Fold:
Amino acid sequence: MKISADAYPTTVEMPRTLSAIHNLRNQHNRIISGGTILQINWEAGVEKPEHLISTEKLSELKGISEVQLDGEPALKIGAAMTISDCLHNISIQKNASILAEACEKIAAPAVRNRGTIGGNICSKIGDTIPALLVLEAQLSFYNGEQENMISLREWLTKPNPPSSELLTNIYIPIHTLNKPGSSFFRKIGRRESFTAAIISIAGYIEYEENNIKTARLAIGGGSHLPCRLSIAEKEINKAANGIDWSFLSQVIQDDFSSYTDPFITVEYRKKVAANLFIAWIKDILKEQGKE
Ligand SMILES: Cc1cc2nc3c(=O)[nH]c(=O)nc-3n(C[C@H](O)[C@H](O)[C@H](O)COP(=O)(O)OP(=O)(O)OC[C@H]3O[C@@H](n4cnc5c(N)ncnc54)[C@H](O)[C@@H]3O)c2cc1C
Structure:
């Protein structure tokens, strides 16, 4: 279906199936889900595209379920599910609680009811991304002909998302569920609620005989391109029997590419990130009787 008006020259397409999408690869097309970011951009003067492809009625982008992915259990989350859908979903709360925590920290309820997890990811700055990075999420994209799978981590390293690729589903492996581990998500803003993040961080740690076996740390928020802190992760993984905390703090700060803006310096962001990660890891080790 196409809607157009002379006063609003952008046309909107609302396909019900992937195969009904009209020319996804046209560079003048733009995918729209909740529109909460796009609307802010347009209000700020960004030019509107000629043609919008809405995900609202795409049944392939709906639903949250437990599935098998390469023979392993995984959570499948439709890209058009709203942040509120994800926040209140029992399976996400049970299998990927830090994603629910991240969703709880996004905006106010009205925006969460409209904004989608797909739009949050495709913005490349959304607060769900650090949580999804430590959960080792995989993404499936439809390119107009077929769906392809890519890890979120790899996708983030690619140049700006091409509008010709539609995010259809997010997959989170849940085979780690029965292993002993801890995870956490923390968003630091300039005030208590509904505010843009200075940083958002997520961590996941798995232990074996009370020692840290695997550590995954991720950081994003603000205008950061979210990423895993792979050098810091290696430092924790190899230091099973004793961590040099001041060295680890320095490694985290060096591993995190940040920026200064009129309100916050790069040094402050790096220090806060290192302190949060270290306080969390120390708490875990204390719980395990290791500190
Ligand atoms: C007042 C306010 C407060 C906010 N606070 C936060 C916050 O605290 N944390 C946070 O992370 N965000 C925040 N946001 C931003 C936004 O609401 C969320 O990130 C939301 O999840 C975006 O989803 P959307 O569906 O509205 O995206 P849209 O605006 O529809 O799209 C965003 C981008 O993703 C692309 N896109 C959308 N869906 C797809 C898809 N399926 N495949 C490919 N590309 C796609 C669009 O082309 C566009 O480039 C806030 C926004 C507002 C207005």
Observations:
- The chain has a mean pLDDT of 90.
